[in-house]
Amino acid sequence: MCGGVSFRADGKVIKTFFPNPKARLPVKGRDGQLIMLPWGRRENQAGGAPQGGWARLESIHEGRWEKYRPQPVKIVVDAFMEKDDKGLSHWFDILPGQYIQGLVATDGVFTRLYVVTTEDEKSCHISGRWPRIVGTPEPGAVAFSESKPSPQSDLF
Questions:
Q1: pLDDT tens, position by position, 4-20
Q2: Up-side HSE of residue 75: CA atoms within 13 Å toward CB?
Q3: Residues 112-127: pLDDT tens digits?
Q4: 3-state SS record for the chain
């Protein structure tokens, strides 16, 4: 379900987890620059966008996000974490050239980022949800052991 991520910023490895109300994720802007956006919305946070940090791909296709003017983005991380049914954390690498699909939702003055998910048997989370991986691995990228995401288009 992607409850946390690891990425590099300013020469440091940053790990951030959704429960942190200040969690922000790096997205690739149109000019290639990284932009940090707030990850989802928690129960006590202002705004009317959906609570949580995830957007089911099916709900996007069904138009449930339309009122938030959804925009697809690439979340630039090195790895993501999900917990299994015993609460144990498992980290999964993202190959160079691949990204997690994100959805930017706008609600009045608030802009929030949601991780797009699909059902996938690779998920060890009780929900069975897996972040949608987009892009093509760079030549020579090494596959990782816990999961092997398949390339998908960059669009919803």
A1: 999 998 889 999 999 99
A2: 31
A3: 999 999 876 665 656 6
A4: CCCEEEEEECCEEEEEECCCCCCEEEEECCCCCEEEEEECECCCCCCCCCCECEEEHHHHHCCCCHHHCCEEEEECCCEEEEECCCCCEEEEECCCCEEEEEEEEEECCEEEEEEEEEECCCCCCCCCEEECEEECCCCCCCCCCCCCCCCCCCCC
Joined together, the tokens standing for residue 50 give 């959906």
Reported pTM = 0.85
pLDDT per residue as tens digits for the range 27-42: 998 888 999 999 999 9
Instruction: Report which of 34, 53, 35, 33 is spatially closest to residue 43, judged by C-alpha positions.
Output: 53
Dihedral pair phi/psi, residue 91, rounded to 5°: -105, 140
Give residue 133's identity as a one-letter amino acid code: I
